Amino acid sequence: MIKKKIWGIIRLLRPEISLFGMLCVYIGSIASGSKLFSYDLVYGMLAVFFIGAGSMPFNDYFDWEIDKLNHPNRPLSTGLFKPIFGLQLGIIFFIIGLILSYLINYLCFFIGLFAIILIIIYEIAYKNKAFIGNIIVAFTTAISFTYGGAIIGDLIKPTFFTLISFLIFLAREVIMDIRDFEGDKITRITLPIKIGRKPAVHLASILILMAMIMLFLPNYLGIFNNWYILFALPVALITLYSIIILYKDINNAGKTSNILRISMAAGLIIFILALI
Questions:
Q1: Within 13 Å of residue 255, how many CA atoms lie on the same side as its CB?
Q2: Domain presence at residue 227
Q3: Is 135 within a domain?
Q4: CA-CA 20 to 30 A from 57: which of 77, 219, 248, 259?
């Protein structure tokens, strides 16, 4: 039972998602001129990890009933933990993230606090507000790049990374709502429910195409070296493939979402290689 509980906590936190945030912080900081290693950078990466990981059980606390249909294997949905445990765990992780942010500087603290406030507002007021909710979720994820720049006091240089990730994350949020269409109809009014699944696919495609155009801008602006395009091209092709299979069958929304996660991870790796 102890092993089951420990594994359940890991599944609640979904740490693999927060690892994206840690990489985003690293890229944003290096792009702003930070050293490849510093204690502040480590604190920042850990802070974003705790805030991101904490948002998962915090979200599950509000969604545990609807997750019985959409995600029946999640720990709160199966009854492995009481729903209140998700709320408590989320708050503890938020506090740890804020403490780590405070140890860096006031700017990081306020960005971390702002992100947490947005997460809370989303859960309480905007989860059922269709596209507005998607924008909030995408923004709180993409702002990790800006947080990385804030570690050394620069909010401007990470802007490119923040914008491109915002577009991809926003598209993925819409696609996940397409995936959860049937379950969400019970209690939520998501964008696909409001405008239809096909129009939502079109919107997600436009967002992804905009992101792919931005992906190649550094090559033409001379920001990265000439090798960058060789790394960026496969990422773009994988991303475009995810949309093609979604147009082929709208029930591939889950598969498309997973492919986008892979392409985002690959994108972060090429950004690191280009910066180093």
A1: 13
A2: yes
A3: no
A4: 259
